[in-house]
Amino acid sequence: MRVFSAPQGNFSDNDIAAAADILKAGGVVAFPTETVYGLGARYDCETAIKKIFAAKGRPADNPLIVHIAHPEELAMVAQSISPQEEKLMLYFWPGPLTLVLTKNPALSGLVTAGLSTVGVRMPSHPVALRLITAVGVPIVAPSANLSGRPSPTAARHVAEDLAGSIDALCDGGETTVGLESTVARVYFDRIVVLRPGSVTRAMLQEATQLPVVLATHADGVPEAPGMKYVHYAPRAEIFLYLGDQISAMTAALDNEAKVAVIAHSDTLELLPSTVRKFTLGARGCADLAARKLYAYLREADGMGIERILVEGIVPEGLGEAVMNRLRKAASRVIGEQK
After folding, report:
1. What pLDDT digit, counting tens, does each position of 101-160 carry?
2. Distance between CA atoms of 169 and 186, rounded to whole angstroms?
3. Longest Cα separation, the chain
4. By CB atoms within 10 Å of each CB, which of 14, 186, 221, 318 scores lowest?
5. Rounded CA separation 87/70 (Å)
6. What CATH number does the domain containing 317 carry?
7. Does residue 42 come out as left (phi exceeding 0), alpha (psi in the -120 to 50 range) or beta?
């Protein structure tokens, strides 16, 4: 695996061109976006797309997201764009919003899992935009991790999972958002969020004046990544605590398992000093939780932690996306409302 390194993201033109040449030749390259690291391949190279599925161990019915760098590339993968979809693109692109659109019939079914739709976004990370521009065509890019594992927010996470299975890695430092993009589909009278992210339901509603609802589950082939299969999970068990569960969390520390706690700073102050602790920051602020969650889960795995106790956060705004990922990863939920 060839590694291009620029921790601040200031890759030379030569490095970008070299990484683009690997993609042009049918290779797969991991690169940073503002959300998480993606594993990229040309959208029109089925051999390279198959390499992505093989490297990740990804189910074939889990569709990929196409990344573009310029508006004119959209027609290569999608068609029949509605006025509301155009409005969302103007509001949120470049940025962490994936729109599920009607696919261009020429687009390979490997990308869309055989669906008539395709997820498309324009990332805001300058490295991603430079790389796509240098390749000259859109890039398909799921998260650059083994399927089901926490998504990578740093290059070392990519190397942990995929070293030896991919052609190159662009190390551009840590990502800024930390959670995958919001995935949304626009209908005539509403917007359905298939995967919550940092573009929140309130933001989508403000931009379009349409009602915005959250999809509950996937039956059959999922319309977007993260809907059907176990995702975002470390090797350790995750126990997710909802509501005021400090006493229950404390009681759960009295066992033989190697335990770590991810909780708000005020909760951590009440727990024994001997416990390995990761802070979610202050209550009511989900930014730190979103940015650090996956790194915490991977760090706990690296320490040999067997069980992670996680304090839930308020599922509003960005907190909705954090809780979506935690519920997907949790082995048990304590304090669930009946």
Report:
1. 999 999 999 999 999 999 999 999 999 999 999 999 999 999 999 998 999 999 999 999
2. 34
3. 59
4. 14
5. 16
6. 3.40.50.11030
7. beta
